[in-house]
Amino acid sequence: MKIGVFDSGLGGLYLLSSMVMSKDLSKYDYVYLGDTKNLPYGEKNQRQILELTSKGVDFLFRQGCQLVIVACNTSSAQALRKIQQNFLPKYYQDRRVLGVIRPTVELIKAGDTCVIATNATVKAKAYTRELRKLNSALKISEIPAPELVPLLETNQLAKLEKAVRKYSAIIENKKVKNLILGCTHYAIIGDKFAQSLGKGIKLISQDKVVPIKLLDYLNRHPKIDKKLTKKRQRKIYVTKLSLDFAKNARTWFGQKVKLELAKI
Protein backbone atom coordinates (compact mmCIF):
# COMPACT_ATOMS: atom_id res chain seq x y z
CA MET A 1 0.00 0.00 0.00
CA LYS A 2 1.16 3.51 -0.81
CA ILE A 3 0.88 7.09 0.47
CA GLY A 4 -1.29 9.29 -1.71
CA VAL A 5 -1.04 13.06 -2.05
CA PHE A 6 -3.89 15.07 -3.54
CA ASP A 7 -3.90 18.71 -4.64
CA SER A 8 -5.26 20.92 -7.38
CA GLY A 9 -1.83 21.45 -8.90
CA LEU A 10 1.78 22.40 -8.25
CA GLY A 11 1.54 23.06 -4.51
CA GLY A 12 0.98 19.46 -3.58
CA LEU A 13 3.70 18.32 -5.95
CA TYR A 14 6.13 20.71 -4.26
CA LEU A 15 5.03 19.31 -0.91
CA LEU A 16 5.64 15.76 -2.16
CA SER A 17 9.13 16.77 -3.28
CA SER A 18 9.91 17.87 0.28
CA MET A 19 8.59 14.56 1.61
CA VAL A 20 10.69 12.38 -0.69
CA MET A 21 13.78 14.43 0.16
CA SER A 22 13.29 13.57 3.83
CA LYS A 23 15.68 10.86 4.99
CA ASP A 24 12.95 9.07 6.92
CA LEU A 25 10.14 9.46 4.36
CA SER A 26 12.01 8.81 1.11
CA LYS A 27 11.71 5.02 1.50
CA TYR A 28 7.92 5.00 1.05
CA ASP A 29 5.98 4.57 -2.20
CA TYR A 30 3.90 7.60 -3.25
CA VAL A 31 1.13 8.34 -5.70
CA TYR A 32 0.40 11.97 -6.50
CA LEU A 33 -2.74 13.33 -8.14
CA GLY A 34 -2.95 16.93 -9.29
CA ASP A 35 -6.41 17.97 -10.47
CA THR A 36 -4.95 20.48 -12.90
CA LYS A 37 -8.02 20.38 -15.12
CA ASN A 38 -10.16 21.99 -12.41
CA LEU A 39 -7.78 24.38 -10.70
CA PRO A 40 -7.96 26.77 -8.96
CA TYR A 41 -10.10 25.25 -6.22
CA GLY A 42 -10.06 28.52 -4.28
CA GLU A 43 -12.74 30.05 -6.50
CA LYS A 44 -15.18 27.12 -6.28
CA ASN A 45 -18.10 26.59 -3.89
CA GLN A 46 -18.17 23.96 -1.15
CA ARG A 47 -20.28 21.49 -3.13
CA GLN A 48 -17.85 21.58 -6.06
CA ILE A 49 -14.82 21.28 -3.79
CA LEU A 50 -16.30 18.30 -1.93
CA GLU A 51 -17.23 16.53 -5.16
CA LEU A 52 -13.81 17.03 -6.77
CA THR A 53 -11.87 16.16 -3.62
CA SER A 54 -13.92 13.01 -3.05
CA LYS A 55 -13.23 11.90 -6.62
CA GLY A 56 -9.52 12.60 -6.19
CA VAL A 57 -9.30 10.66 -2.92
CA ASP A 58 -11.24 7.78 -4.48
CA PHE A 59 -8.81 7.69 -7.42
CA LEU A 60 -5.82 7.47 -5.08
CA PHE A 61 -7.41 4.69 -3.05
CA ARG A 62 -8.02 2.79 -6.28
CA GLN A 63 -4.29 3.15 -7.04
CA GLY A 64 -3.53 1.24 -3.86
CA CYS A 65 -3.06 4.02 -1.32
CA GLN A 66 -3.62 3.23 2.35
CA LEU A 67 -3.25 6.82 3.45
CA VAL A 68 -4.08 10.00 1.53
CA ILE A 69 -2.86 13.47 2.41
CA VAL A 70 -5.18 16.21 1.18
CA ALA A 71 -2.46 18.75 0.47
CA CYS A 72 -4.93 21.31 -0.85
CA ASN A 73 -5.79 23.73 1.97
CA THR A 74 -9.05 24.65 0.26
CA SER A 75 -10.08 20.99 0.24
CA SER A 76 -8.89 20.57 3.82
CA ALA A 77 -11.00 23.56 4.87
CA GLN A 78 -14.12 22.81 2.84
CA ALA A 79 -14.25 19.03 2.38
CA LEU A 80 -11.95 17.08 4.71
CA ARG A 81 -14.37 16.65 7.61
CA LYS A 82 -17.18 15.37 5.38
CA ILE A 83 -14.80 12.93 3.70
CA GLN A 84 -13.58 11.63 7.06
CA GLN A 85 -17.05 11.39 8.59
CA ASN A 86 -19.16 10.29 5.62
CA PHE A 87 -17.09 9.11 2.65
CA LEU A 88 -14.59 6.87 4.48
CA PRO A 89 -17.13 4.99 6.67
CA LYS A 90 -19.27 4.29 3.61
CA TYR A 91 -16.59 3.24 1.11
CA TYR A 92 -13.15 2.80 2.70
CA GLN A 93 -13.42 1.96 6.38
CA ASP A 94 -9.83 0.72 6.61
CA ARG A 95 -8.20 3.75 4.92
CA ARG A 96 -7.20 7.15 6.30
CA VAL A 97 -7.32 10.71 4.97
CA LEU A 98 -5.30 13.51 6.59
CA GLY A 99 -5.42 17.25 6.04
CA VAL A 100 -2.79 19.95 6.37
CA ILE A 101 -4.47 22.67 8.43
CA ARG A 102 -4.42 21.11 11.89
CA PRO A 103 -0.73 20.07 11.66
CA THR A 104 0.15 23.59 10.56
CA VAL A 105 -1.59 25.51 13.34
CA GLU A 106 -0.01 23.27 15.98
CA LEU A 107 3.22 25.19 15.43
CA ILE A 108 1.65 28.41 16.71
CA LYS A 109 2.21 28.76 20.45
CA ALA A 110 1.78 32.51 20.91
CA GLY A 111 1.69 35.80 19.04
CA ASP A 112 -0.81 37.44 16.73
CA THR A 113 -1.10 35.44 13.52
CA CYS A 114 -1.92 36.16 9.90
CA VAL A 115 -3.01 33.51 7.39
CA ILE A 116 -2.72 34.11 3.67
CA ALA A 117 -4.79 31.67 1.62
CA THR A 118 -7.29 31.22 -1.21
CA ASN A 119 -10.74 32.80 -1.18
CA ALA A 120 -12.46 29.52 -0.31
CA THR A 121 -10.05 28.73 2.54
CA VAL A 122 -10.48 32.18 4.04
CA LYS A 123 -14.26 31.96 3.66
CA ALA A 124 -14.31 28.66 5.57
CA LYS A 125 -12.46 30.22 8.55
CA ALA A 126 -10.90 26.81 9.26
CA TYR A 127 -7.59 28.32 10.33
CA THR A 128 -9.28 30.70 12.75
CA ARG A 129 -11.30 27.86 14.30
CA GLU A 130 -8.29 25.59 14.73
CA LEU A 131 -6.08 28.36 16.10
CA ARG A 132 -8.77 29.37 18.60
CA LYS A 133 -8.87 25.78 19.90
CA LEU A 134 -5.18 26.04 20.73
CA ASN A 135 -5.17 29.60 22.07
CA SER A 136 -8.41 31.54 22.42
CA ALA A 137 -6.51 34.76 23.09
CA LEU A 138 -4.79 34.87 19.70
CA LYS A 139 -5.53 37.75 17.39
CA ILE A 140 -6.01 36.17 13.96
CA SER A 141 -6.45 37.69 10.52
CA GLU A 142 -6.99 35.82 7.26
CA ILE A 143 -6.10 37.41 3.93
CA PRO A 144 -7.34 36.08 0.58
CA ALA A 145 -4.75 36.02 -2.21
CA PRO A 146 -6.66 34.59 -5.18
CA GLU A 147 -4.23 35.55 -7.92
CA LEU A 148 -1.19 33.68 -6.53
CA VAL A 149 -2.19 30.15 -7.61
CA PRO A 150 -2.89 31.05 -11.27
CA LEU A 151 0.36 33.04 -11.43
CA LEU A 152 2.33 30.13 -9.99
CA GLU A 153 0.72 27.58 -12.28
CA THR A 154 1.61 29.69 -15.33
CA ASN A 155 5.07 30.69 -14.06
CA GLN A 156 4.50 34.46 -14.32
CA LEU A 157 7.50 35.49 -12.22
CA ALA A 158 7.36 39.26 -12.64
CA LYS A 159 3.70 39.41 -11.59
CA LEU A 160 4.42 37.05 -8.70
CA GLU A 161 7.15 39.35 -7.38
CA LYS A 162 4.75 42.29 -7.51
CA ALA A 163 2.00 40.32 -5.78
CA VAL A 164 4.33 39.16 -3.00
CA ARG A 165 5.35 42.75 -2.31
CA LYS A 166 1.70 43.81 -2.21
CA TYR A 167 0.69 41.14 0.28
CA SER A 168 3.83 41.59 2.36
CA ALA A 169 2.93 45.25 2.87
CA ILE A 170 -0.58 44.28 4.00
CA ILE A 171 0.83 41.67 6.41
CA GLU A 172 3.41 44.06 7.87
CA ASN A 173 0.70 46.64 8.56
CA LYS A 174 -1.10 44.11 10.75
CA LYS A 175 1.89 43.93 13.13
CA VAL A 176 1.69 40.15 13.53
CA LYS A 177 4.30 37.74 14.87
CA ASN A 178 3.40 34.75 12.69
CA LEU A 179 2.50 34.28 9.05
CA ILE A 180 0.98 31.00 7.87
CA LEU A 181 1.22 30.32 4.16
CA GLY A 182 -2.20 28.67 4.04
CA CYS A 183 -1.88 27.17 0.56
CA THR A 184 0.70 24.59 -0.47
CA HIS A 185 1.24 26.56 -3.68
CA TYR A 186 2.54 29.48 -1.63
CA ALA A 187 5.38 27.35 -0.24
CA ILE A 188 6.94 27.55 -3.71
CA ILE A 189 7.46 31.29 -3.13
CA GLY A 190 8.07 31.05 0.59
CA ASP A 191 11.59 32.39 0.17
CA LYS A 192 10.22 35.46 -1.62
CA PHE A 193 7.85 36.18 1.27
CA ALA A 194 10.70 35.67 3.74
CA GLN A 195 12.90 38.17 1.88
CA SER A 196 10.10 40.69 1.53
CA LEU A 197 8.98 40.50 5.16
CA GLY A 198 12.37 40.41 6.84
CA LYS A 199 13.15 38.75 10.18
CA GLY A 200 10.41 40.19 12.38
CA ILE A 201 7.73 37.68 11.35
CA LYS A 202 7.89 33.90 11.79
CA LEU A 203 7.03 32.25 8.48
CA ILE A 204 5.23 28.90 8.60
CA SER A 205 5.34 26.98 5.33
CA GLN A 206 3.77 23.56 4.86
CA ASP A 207 6.66 22.05 2.92
CA LYS A 208 8.55 22.25 6.23
CA VAL A 209 5.64 21.27 8.49
CA VAL A 210 3.90 18.34 6.79
CA PRO A 211 6.88 15.96 6.41
CA ILE A 212 7.61 16.24 10.14
CA LYS A 213 3.97 15.74 11.07
CA LEU A 214 3.57 12.80 8.68
CA LEU A 215 6.57 11.02 10.18
CA ASP A 216 5.17 11.62 13.65
CA TYR A 217 1.80 10.20 12.55
CA LEU A 218 3.40 7.05 11.14
CA ASN A 219 5.44 6.57 14.30
CA ARG A 220 2.25 6.81 16.35
CA HIS A 221 0.34 4.42 14.05
CA PRO A 222 2.64 1.43 13.50
CA LYS A 223 -0.19 -0.72 12.10
CA ILE A 224 -0.65 1.74 9.24
CA ASP A 225 3.08 2.07 8.72
CA LYS A 226 3.41 -1.71 8.50
CA LYS A 227 0.94 -1.76 5.58
CA LEU A 228 2.93 0.77 3.58
CA THR A 229 5.35 -0.48 0.94
CA LYS A 230 8.85 0.93 0.97
CA LYS A 231 10.33 0.56 -2.51
CA ARG A 232 10.94 4.29 -3.18
CA GLN A 233 8.45 4.28 -6.07
CA ARG A 234 6.70 7.49 -7.20
CA LYS A 235 3.82 7.89 -9.64
CA ILE A 236 2.54 11.30 -10.67
CA TYR A 237 -0.91 11.76 -12.19
CA VAL A 238 -2.58 14.92 -13.45
CA THR A 239 -6.04 15.48 -14.90
CA LYS A 240 -4.66 17.85 -17.55
CA LEU A 241 -1.13 17.99 -18.92
CA SER A 242 0.67 21.32 -19.20
CA LEU A 243 4.20 22.36 -20.14
CA ASP A 244 4.65 24.49 -17.00
CA PHE A 245 3.61 21.63 -14.72
CA ALA A 246 5.91 19.19 -16.55
CA LYS A 247 8.81 21.65 -16.30
CA ASN A 248 8.41 22.01 -12.55
CA ALA A 249 8.00 18.27 -12.11
CA ARG A 250 11.34 17.70 -13.87
CA THR A 251 12.98 20.36 -11.70
CA TRP A 252 11.81 18.74 -8.48
CA PHE A 253 11.92 15.04 -9.43
CA GLY A 254 14.51 14.81 -12.20
CA GLN A 255 14.42 14.79 -15.98
CA LYS A 256 13.18 11.19 -16.20
CA VAL A 257 9.97 11.81 -14.26
CA LYS A 258 6.81 10.71 -16.09
CA LEU A 259 3.41 12.36 -15.85
CA GLU A 260 0.36 10.19 -16.43
CA LEU A 261 -3.10 11.43 -17.34
CA ALA A 262 -5.84 10.53 -14.88
CA LYS A 263 -9.59 10.55 -15.35
CA ILE A 264 -11.48 11.06 -12.10
TrEMBL record:
Catalytic activity: L-glutamate = D-glutamate
Enzyme class (EC, first level): isomerase
Any one GO biological process: cell wall organization
Gene3D superfamilies: 3.40.50.1860
EC numbers: 5.1.1.3
MF GO annotations: glutamate racemase activity
Protein name in the entry: Glutamate racemase
